[in-house]
C-alpha cells in the first residue's frame, strides 16, 4: 500500500493532522493507497506558494515554460506502462483505455507547448493622434484545478498544461477516489526541476480543499470538472471574491439515429460510446433516440452487441471490454436508476442488474427499451453501462426531446442525409455535436457545454485563452521629437 503526501512549494509535505482518505481498487475492493485529508490551512499554504512563484514564473519566457511541458510529456511517455497500470488499478479502466489516456496526456502537453510563440495580443487604432492602443494578454494568476475521478490523467494535463504554458501557477486537488495517478505524475514532474511553487498538489475533500481554493482571494481562476452540485458549490464560494470559474459539470448526451442512418456505424459507435470507461464519461451517449422505422432493427443489433461485451478485473483480464464502476455509491446509483425505470414500464433487453460472482463494483451491460421521456434514465446522468432507447417520428420531435434536459454538453447524430444532419446541428442546444462518429473531442477543438453543463471551456486556442486576462494600454507619444 502506498502513502502519499501533499506537494507544496517543491516539497513533499506531511499533513499536520491525522485524518486520511483510503483509496481502493474498484475491481477487488482492496485498499491500495492512503492520502491525507487536507485542511483549509494546508490549502492556503499551497496557494501562497503558488502566488509567491507567480511573479518570476509569469516573467519566464513562454518558450522556456514550453520546455518544461515538453520534458513532462517525455517523462510521461517513458513511464507510460507504470502510469497506465496505476490508472487501471485505482479507476477500473481496461488497460487499452488507460494507455490511450496516458498517450492523450502526453499529446496534450506537447500540443500546449507548441502555443508558446503563437498566442498574442493586438494593436488597435486610436481615435486620437499620436496614440496606439495595445491589447495585452497576461496570465490570470494562480489556477485552482479540481480533478474528477473518471479521467484523472487526461484532466490533470488539461488543467496543468495551459496554466503553466501561459505563465500561471497552479494548485491541484485530485479526486478522492483516484489520487494515486496524480501522486505518480507529480513524482515525475518533480524530477525535471520545475521551480518551487509553480505546481502544487493538495489531497482532500471538495468541501474543504475545493471550497478553500474557490474562495481564496489569491486564486485567479478555479477550474473544476465534476458534478453539477459540486460546481454549484464552487460558484457559490468563488462569488465571495469574484473569482473566475471554469466549470465542466457533466451531461446527458443524446444520440439520434434517423431512418437514413448507417446502422452498422450507429451500433458500433453508440456501443463504444456507452461502454468506454465503463459508461462513466460525461460526453458519451446517455440516451438514444431511434426513428420508429429502424427502432426494431437497431434495438436488436445494439442488444446483441451489448450482450457480447465482457467484464472483469482489468489487471487480470486484459481482454475484458468493461471494468468495474468506481465505487459502491456509483453502483448503487446505477442500480437504483435502472430499477426505477423498470418499475415505471421500461423493458430490459439485456443486463439490468449488478454483476454476480465478482469481487468489485460491476454492473451488467444493459439495454432498456420502452423508455419514456420523463424517466430519470432519460433526464439524469446514469454514468454506467446502461443504454435507454426512445423512439421518435419526426426531426422536430427528436430535436425537442434531445434539448429537453438541464444539460448541454455533447450530442450526436447518425444519418446519411445532409438535410437531417444540418437541421439537427442547427437545432441542438449542446456545446458539441458528433456526426457519424464516437463522442470524443479533439485537443485542438473547444470542449464546452451550454446550460447547466458548465461555464467556459477547454482545449485549443479558446481553452488556452481561458487562462489569460486582457490588459489594455493607451500609449501616447510626442510628435515633435528633437
UniProtKB/TrEMBL annotation:
<dbReference type="GO" id="GO:0016491">
    <property type="term" value="F:oxidoreductase activity"/>
</dbReference>
<keyword id="KW-0560">Oxidoreductase</keyword>
<dbReference type="Pfam" id="PF00171">
    <property type="entry name" value="Aldedh"/>
</dbReference>
<comment type="similarity">
    <text>Belongs to the aldehyde dehydrogenase family.</text>
</comment>
<protein>
    <submittedName>
        <fullName>Aldehyde dehydrogenase</fullName>
        <ecNumber>1.2.1.-</ecNumber>
    </submittedName>
</protein>
<dbReference type="InterPro" id="IPR029510">
    <property type="entry name" value="Ald_DH_CS_GLU"/>
</dbReference>
<feature type="active site">
    <location>
        <position position="248"/>
    </location>
</feature>
<dbReference type="InterPro" id="IPR015590">
    <property type="entry name" value="Aldehyde_DH_dom"/>
</dbReference>
<dbReference type="InterPro" id="IPR016162">
    <property type="entry name" value="Ald_DH_N"/>
</dbReference>
<feature type="domain" description="Aldehyde dehydrogenase">
    <location>
        <begin position="12"/>
        <end position="473"/>
    </location>
</feature>
<dbReference type="InterPro" id="IPR016163">
    <property type="entry name" value="Ald_DH_C"/>
</dbReference>
<dbReference type="InterPro" id="IPR016161">
    <property type="entry name" value="Ald_DH/histidinol_DH"/>
</dbReference>
Amino acid at each position: 500500500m502506498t502513502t502519499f503526501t501533499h506537494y507544496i512549494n517543491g516539497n513533499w509535505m506531511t499533513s499536520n493532522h491525522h485524518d486520511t482518505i483510503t483509496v481502493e481498487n474498484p475491481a477487488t475492493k482492496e485498499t491500495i493507497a492512503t492520502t491525507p485529508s487536507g485542511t483549509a490551512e494546508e490549502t492556503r499554504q499551497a496557494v501562497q506558494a503558488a502566488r509567491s512563484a507567480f511573479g518570476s514564473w509569469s516573467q519566464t519566457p513562454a518558450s522556456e515554460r514550453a520546455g518544461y511541458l515538453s520534458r513532462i510529456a517525455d517523462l510521461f511517455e517513458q513511464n507510460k506502462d507504470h502510469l497506465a497500470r496505476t490508472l487501471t488499478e485505482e479507476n477500473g479502466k481496461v488497460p487499452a483505455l488507460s494507455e490511450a489516456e496516458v498517450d492523450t496526456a502526453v499529446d496534450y502537453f506537447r500540443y500546449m507547448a507548441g502555443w508558446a510563440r503563437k498566442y498574442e495580443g493586438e494593436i488597435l487604432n486610436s481615435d486620437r493622434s499620436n496614440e496606439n492602443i495595445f491589447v495585452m494578454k497576461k496570465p490570470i494568476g494562480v489556477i485552482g484545478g479540481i480533478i474528477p475521478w473518471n479521467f484523472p490523467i487526461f484532466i490533470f494535463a488539461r488543467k496543468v498544461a495551459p496554466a503553466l504554458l501561459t505563465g500561471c501557477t497552479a494548485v491541484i486537488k485530485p479526486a478522492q477516489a483516484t489520487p494515486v495517478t496524480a501522486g505518480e505524475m507529480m513524482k515525475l514532474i518533480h524530477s525535471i526541476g520545475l521551480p518551487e511553487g509553480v505546481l502544487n498538489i493538495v489531497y482532500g475533500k471538495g468541501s474543504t480543499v475545493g471550497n478553500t481554493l474557490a474562495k481564496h482571494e489569491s486564486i485567479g481562476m478555479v477550474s473544476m470538472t465534476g458534478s453539477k452540485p459540486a460546481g454549484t458549490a464552487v460558484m457559490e464560494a468563488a462569488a465571495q471574491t469574484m473569482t473566475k470559474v471554469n466549470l465542466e459539470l457533466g451531461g446527458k448526451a443524446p444520440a439520434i439515429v434517423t431512418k437514413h442512418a448507417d446502422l452498422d456505424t450507429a451500433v458500433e459507435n453508440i456501443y463504444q460510446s456507452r461502454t468506454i470507461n465503463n459508461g462513466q464519461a460525461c460526453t458519451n451517449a446517455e440516451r438514444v433516440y431511434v426513428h420508429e422505422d429502424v427502432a426494431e432493427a437497431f434495438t436488436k443489433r445494439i442488444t446483441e452487441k451489448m450482450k457480447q461485451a465482457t467484464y472483469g478485473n482489468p489487471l487480470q483480464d486484459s481482454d475484458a471490454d468493461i471494468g468495474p464502476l468506481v465505487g459502491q455509491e456509483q453502483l448503487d446509483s446505477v442500480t437504483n436508476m435502472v430499477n426505477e425505470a423498470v418499475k415505471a414500464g421500461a423493458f430490459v433487453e439485456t443486463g439490468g442488474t449488478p454483476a454476480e460472482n465478482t469481487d468489485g463494483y460491476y454492473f451488467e451491460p444493459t439495454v432498456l427499451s420502452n423508455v419514456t421521456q420523463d424517466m430519470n434514465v432519460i433526464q439524469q446522468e446514469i454514468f454506467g453501462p446502461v443504454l435507454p432507447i426512445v423512439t421518435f417520428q419526426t426531426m422536430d420531435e427528436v430535436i425537442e426531446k434531445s434539448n429537453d434536459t438541464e444539460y448541454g454538453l455533447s450530442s450526436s447524430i447518425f444519418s446519411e442525409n445532409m438535410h437531417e444532419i444540418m437541421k439537427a446541428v442547427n437545432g441542438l442546444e449542446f456545446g458539441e455535436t458528433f456526426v457519424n462518429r464516437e463522442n470524443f473531442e479533439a485537443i485542438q477543438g473547444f470542449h464546452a457545454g451550454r446550460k447547466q453543463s458548465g461555464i467556459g471551456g477547454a482545449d485549443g486556442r479558446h481553452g488556452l485563452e481561458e487562462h489569460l486576462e486582457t490588459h489594455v494600454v493607451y500609449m501616447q507619444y510626442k510628435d515633435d521629437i528633437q
